[in-house]
Structures are given as structure tokens and as C-alpha cells.
């Protein structure tokens, strides 16, 4: 039995060019946010013609979607390890919250792209898919806590997971503000974790 032939040299070159275009767009996002990701800027940074971007990736919407896909993968890497680690359900939720905060601190523009996605149907659908996936993992940990008798039996775990996700996004978003309510999230996240723990524990 013979191995199937791999991609041709031309195919590898096309794939490499596509990756370099997405690399350039991702670098622009990290430096200046979504508004900085324009096709002329990507063209200049990747040192390719505009038509090459259209041929290898597509228009600006497609480029932003490709960058969002990378942000989704990065977010998943941060979170999945925490959900899989040993510990009580409460410890795993706290660890996952810390990982989410770390992702937001280390990759702020990727976080903003996911927390406040551009109004692009494909990007919105993919980001909603990730949110459903990650919130489902959080709901599963809450369900473990209910089954273990350490968390309230009356919790709607799916709704609680959504509320927790929204609460963390809200606290982390304070670092974007330009007014006096701008705040580093560390202490607020610790307070939120304490409030959450008190609210979901069996009394």
C-alpha cells in the first residue's frame, strides 16, 4: 500500500502565503485592534499584492474571520487545560476564570475580538459556537458540583454558566474604558469569584 501524495510544491507555497497573510493581519490586530486590520495594511505587512489576499484568503471579512479562528484556538488552549485539571468543581471554575483573565491580559485584542465580535455573520456564528462550547464545559463542571452535593441542587447549570461568562466579560471589559471606571480586573475578579462561590454553594 502506497502513501497518498502530499500537497504539491505549488500547493505548499499557496498555503504558506495564506498563513503569512493571516500572520500579518494578526500582528496588526495585536498592535492596533480590529480597525487596524485593513487590506492595504495587510498587503504592506505581508509584502503581497492585494489581489493575492483575495485569492488566498478573501476580502476583509474573510481575513478577520481567519484571525478570529486563531483567537478561538488560543482561547480554547487557555481554558481546556483548566477544565481538565483535577480538583473540586469550585477549584476548577476558579482556575478556568483565572485562565480566561490570563488570556484577556496576554492577548487583549484577541479577547476583544471574541468578546465584542465584528458584525460579520460568519465570525459571529463561529464565535457563538465557541461560546456555546466553552459554556457547555463550564455547565458540566457546575453539574459535577451539584452531583457531588457541594453546589445547590436548584441551579440551572446552563443559565448559570451563561451568567458567569457574561459577568467575567463585564469585569474584564472595565480595562477598556477611558473614564474613571477603568480598572485593572485582578481585585474585582477575586471579589466576583468570592460572590459566585457563595451563591452556588449549598447552604
From TrEMBL:
Keywords: DNA-binding, Transcription, Transcription regulation
The UniProt record lists the keyword Transcription regulation: yes
Segments of the chain annotated as binding DNA: 38-57
Database matches in InterPro entries: Homeodomain-like_sf, HTH-type_TetR-like_transc_reg, HTH_TetR, MT1864/Rv1816-like_C, Tet_transcr_reg_TetR-rel_C_sf
Gene3D superfamilies named among the record's database cross-references: Homeodomain-like (1.10.10.60), Tetracycline Repressor, domain 2 (1.10.357.10)
Keyword Transcription among UniProt keywords: yes
Annotated ranges, domain HTH tetR-type: 15-75
Alphabetical list of PROSITE patterns matching this protein: HTH_TETR_2
Residue ranges of coiled coil: none
UniProt protein name: TetR/AcrR family transcriptional regulator
Organism this protein belongs to: Skermania pinensis
